[in-house]
Amino acid sequence: MKTAVIVFPASNCDRDAAVALEKVTGRSVQMVWHEERTLPTVDFVVIPGGFSYGDYLRSGAIAARSPIVQDIVRKAKTGLPVAGFCNGFQVLTESGLLPGALMRNKGLRFVCKPQKLNIVNSSSMFTKAYKNQTEITVPIAHFDGNYYADDDTLSEMRKSGQIIFTYEGNPNGSSKDIAGISNKAGNVLGMMPHPERAIDPMHGGTDGLKLFKSVLESIQ
Amino acid sequence: MKAIIHINLKPGVLDPQGRTIARSLTHLGFDGVTAARQGKTIELDLKGEDKDAAETQVKDMCEKLLANTVIENYRIEIVE
Fold it and tell me: Pick the catalytic residue: A86, A94, A142, A168?
């Protein structure tokens, strides 16, 4: 599986994402600068966490309008698997690839801790390797992770299996405890937690690994 | 010509910052405050003289970048 990680000014989990992808695929990862107009030919793209463009205007808003994201939007619409973690999730909602928006945490605090998640949809291309496991623990670290969508959107997402992860104990005020969602077609994932920071026993857990393995299994 | 764009969260969207502002005002003794909503203002300096054309263009800017219409409303003022 060939993979790429997008790098924006003030991305800070780009290297973590690359290390995770390398560990799972055994191949080097292409780091793609945000001013590039075309993605290289890859099978999976990660939009990493961080504070792209200093979170100016709204988190992820400026990054979502960058040249490379325009190309990601085009290719995601024809089926390219894409995942955005933390700031990457904000970029994906801002780009319109995923429904809803991420707002300031309800408690007005930056939350940073290991977080239990429920796997709501275990047959998605991002979760199938977890098999019968229903709960994982991965770190969260965000200020703007309060997921919002209107009631109609939420019920449609629930019906079509787009709610992938929910929080066990809501840390930020998200509607329906939502931690991660996919698009309707199921090839685009956005989540606030950081699976790329849970891939080595030294991290305190390896629950994030199977997310990357799921993608690898799905496209082979 | 200038455009002043007022951006606010839509009614019904939780605004924890606004709520905290209202609470703080109450603590200061301003007990007439029942709610606060926090928004933002963006001022643009624009070329040209045609106000209608400017408004159309600024509306397009709001839809494409300045506001996130999933959660925000905007109002445009064009001034000399």
Answer: A86
A196 has catalytic annotation: yes
Contacts of B13 in chain A (CB under 8 A): 103, 148
Domains of chain A (ranges, CATH numbers): 3-219 (3.40.50.880)
Reported as a single tens digit per residue, the pLDDT across B24-56 is 999 999 999 999 999 999 999 999 999 999 999
**What would the two tokens of residue B20 be?**
């905290």
Q: Using alpha carbons only, what angle is made at residue A11 by residues A129 and A111, rounded to the nearest 5 degrees?
A: 70
pTM of the model: 0.93
Domain B2-79 has CATH 3.40.50.720: no
- Let me know if A86 is a catalytic residue: yes
Cα separations (Å) of A191 from A14, A46, A140, B62? 15, 12, 10, 26
